[in-house]
Amino acid sequence: MLLDFPILTLVVLLPGIGAVFTYLTSSDKAARAVALGFSLVVLGLATVLLLGFVWPDLVSLPTFVNGGHVYYAVEKSPWVSIPTLNVNYFLGADELSVVLVFLNSLLTPLALAISWDEHHRVAAFFAMFLFMETTINGVFLSLDLFQFLIFWEVGLVPMYFLIAVWGGPRRRYAAIKFFLYTFLASLPLLLAVFAFYFYSVPHTFDMTEIIKTSPIPPGLVGDLMFVALLIAFGTKLPTWPLHTWLPDAHVEAPTGGSVILAGVLLKLGGYGLIRFNVQMIPRAALDMWWLLAAAGIISILYGAVVCLAQDDLKRLVAFSSVSHMGFVTLGIAAGVYGFTINGRGAVLGFTGAIFQMFAHGLVSAALFMVAGSLGHKLGTRNISELGGIAKKAPWMATFLMISFMASLGLPGLVGFVAEFSVFIGVYAAFGLLVFVPILTVILTAAYYIWAMQRAIFGPPNPKWETMPDLHGFEVAPLAVLTASFAVFGILPIVIMGLISNWAQGILGGL
Amino acid sequence: MSYILTLLVLVPLVGSVAVWVAGITQRTAKWIALGFSLVETGLTTLLLVGFVEPAWAFAFGAPTFTRPPTAGLFVPLYYMERYTWLSNFGITYIVGVDGLSLPLIWLTALLTTLAVVFHWDEENRPQAFFGLFLFLEMALVGVFMSLDLLLFAVFWELVLLPMFFLIGIWGGPNRRYAALKFLIFTHVGFVIMLLSIFALFFNSADVNMAVYGVNANTLDMTAFLDGALRHEMGALGYLTLGLQIPIFAAFLIGFLVKLPSFPFHTWLPDAHVEAPTGGSVILAGVMLKMGGYGIFRINFGMLPDAARDLWWVLAILGTISMVYAAFVCLAQVDLKRLIAYSSIGHMGFVLLGASSLTVIGVQGAIFQLFNHGIITAILFMLAGSVKHATGTRDIPELQGLAKAMPQFSFVLAIGFFASLGLPGLNSFWSEFMVFVGTYGSPNLDTMRRLIIIPLISIVVTAAYYVYTMQRILFGDVPEKLGQPHDLLPWERVSYGVLVALVFLVGFFPLPFLGMINAYTSASLPWLGGF
């Protein structure tokens, strides 16, 4: 069937409308139902959108071609058009954004599910998640720079409130640190948008135009812009050394908040790096890929090493996110560098990076769900205080184990496919440098298995005699995610095929 | 001849007299005041709508401009009225509006109405109080529509009078000092401006000849506007640069005091802290815009060569205002003083945008005047609400208001996010345009990266707003505050209108941007694009 209704507007705005309805409900039950309902509808729409890419015979999306790049389900209408300022309402999807939009739409209802037992100001809490979903989908689907900025910045507001109002003991500190840190980091993005507008002829905010024409002149301007955009997106990613907001934000955020934060918000950084740094300033990317590679390698190593020293389970997972997102950065670097050496590893690098974003989204969501539930039930997340919970809470132990295995890259699960594809890309591009991330896998396995051993197995700590196991509302999202690990671990081609074709396509731009 | 503009001046004047004469009780005084201010708001809204969409201008006819008798370019000013007054001295009553002044006139009418509504329970001499607001409205509207320099000066001074009394009589504990400081600062600035007016008058014969064919001195602003425009677009000679520069400087001092800009800003925190809420709303929401208006109408419109030479003064002062005020805000304890300093910072944007000498920068600056007026009205009302409900404006003493006053907290959150320039809300458009203009300004050229300095103020602004919001709203209500009441019904009306505007202008800035664009392309075509 041909898709002739504005699916992207719905995917972007429906959660926000749902947020308003949720906020206005009069009972907690109604709030949960309305919120979950809206998020499931959006998930349905996102699935239809994904089908348009995966199974074009079933769902046919209208296309828009500009400069050799194809954008799907495009919606464009003028917003402000005076001679000096031409801003459009411009939404469009390509393979890169659709994967991430699907991830967001999948994780939001799961985050709502895991938060089912929240009792403090439920309507506002659930509304914040939907508000977040709108802004994140808006970022991924925006093809106008001004509009991108709006969704990017507004996204800070709901996460700030989620942490500040519903978070842990140090939530005020963590929330304002998160807000100001990422707000400061978005100033280079603002500066870059000025530069894009200024250098493009005619002056435009149209991202498809800028990707086509790459208006930034080669040389110092482009290199500085690359660094500026790296600061902006690297803070979100987060890459060392701009990562320090993440552990605090994660530890203090409510469980559902962490799920979205790690599962989706971090991917905004990766998306930005690819869309802006690689596609919009390709000459600078060809100059400065080494910066990405360095940041990636250091993040991978640093994150893993610091994990070994963590006692708080949530903090451990936070730092492992830093490490895993380093793979994304390294994969992008491999992709760019690979292009300079006759295309070896170029497609693989990008494919690996993007699939790693998808995989890590699923895996870290599960990790934070388990860590959050654990902390919630036991009152502590300190690994040293846990012990032998396998006997008392078999469900929790099972899901914790599966999530750990997926995160460290057990073959058969999605994490392995992602890491492996990054490794291949890095090897094809950089050769033996790949040993560094490979060795990190060992470190990763070390900290996870050690944590698992202390937390799950071993003699039970008498404190946890009466600990409850996971409730239904916690098992359901975890089961979904665990199933997705297996599905995408065994059939990654569904997503990877898409991404690979896309990566092949953008190499023309480099 | 059109009559609407004089009507806009007469309505509040008659209204203030009516309040003073017939407003014997609090009830009659406030209802008369509300009535007249609503009429004014209605008239200005009709005017605004007709301006944006001439097809809807049934009330006063489609906007038409009046050309000067000589051939050539001219600055289009609409609904012009021209009556000779003292013709041997070259003084005429001339009024007219365009895309620069009309949003500000509309804002004046709107904010006066909302200020009257906000003070619905004013018990202290309500007759004089409401009467003064209407008189103030008349003077402000007069400033924005005057096209004769002396008329402009008369209205400019008239503004001081009611504000002085509003602060001095209905203000806080230190009101005498604040009112006097306000009066002296702005009056001295005015006197310096007067020197420029005289200088223009005595050098106006040639300009008058070229534009109107009359070889006599004049105070007609349109003569200077048209003369400057024709000069910039290549035609005849005009006032020499050596003459323009001191005139520019003297006017600038007067406008910088009003804006206010560092270093002439020190009257503002005191005036605001001591002024009654409605007074602050008009003071910050409209009066400060007189300074910005003056810079564009006179300094840019009539002295463009000097503007091209002295842009760096505006740039430096604007940047200092932005950065300095932001840091000072971080240290504030009194909520109202914090908002006052944030106004200084936001007006720095106006100077920065003007200094860029680019079309988009100037448009952003003018739009910033309008946006800031709306936002700062919300903020000062919030300060008034919290004082009314809890008895204090001290940030360290306020806590847990989200629990005690949820409606107030909602408005505060929106007001603070709007003021820090969150994209999606109205001030992001103007701040963005100012920055793009500065970045692309031919003045900066290789020093483009200097834009980082004013950019820092954005983060500091976000810091103090989010930090203050966090401290005031979260946590538990301390014993001292007792049981603060949430918003009063009339407060809700005022906030409702303004918050709606914040979102509406944020989502649909085009009506106002279109007007402003028409103004810049017609009146300031010599500004650079990039």
Structural class of chain A: mainly alpha
Quantity of strands of chain A, as a count: 3
**How many individual β-strands of chain B?**
2
Main beta sheet of chain B: 2 strands, antiparallel
Please state the structural category of chain B. Answer: mainly alpha
Distance between the termini of chain B: 40 Å
Strand order of the largest sheet of chain B: 1-2
The helix tally of chain B amounts to 21
Strand content of chain B: under 5%
Q: How would you state the average pLDDT of chain B, rounded?
A: 93
Order of helices and strands of chain B: HHEEHHHHHHHHHHHHHHHHHHH
> Greatest contact pair?
A-B, 33 and 35 residues
Portion in beta strands of chain A: 5-15%
Query: What separation lies between the terminal Cα atoms of chain A?
Result: 35 Å
- What integer value in Å does the Rg of chain A equal? 22 Å
Low confidence ranges of chain A: none
The run of helices and strands of chain A is: HHEEEHHHHHHHHHHHHHHHHHH
What is the radius of gyration of chain B computed over CA atoms, rounded to a whole number of angstroms? Answer: 22 Å
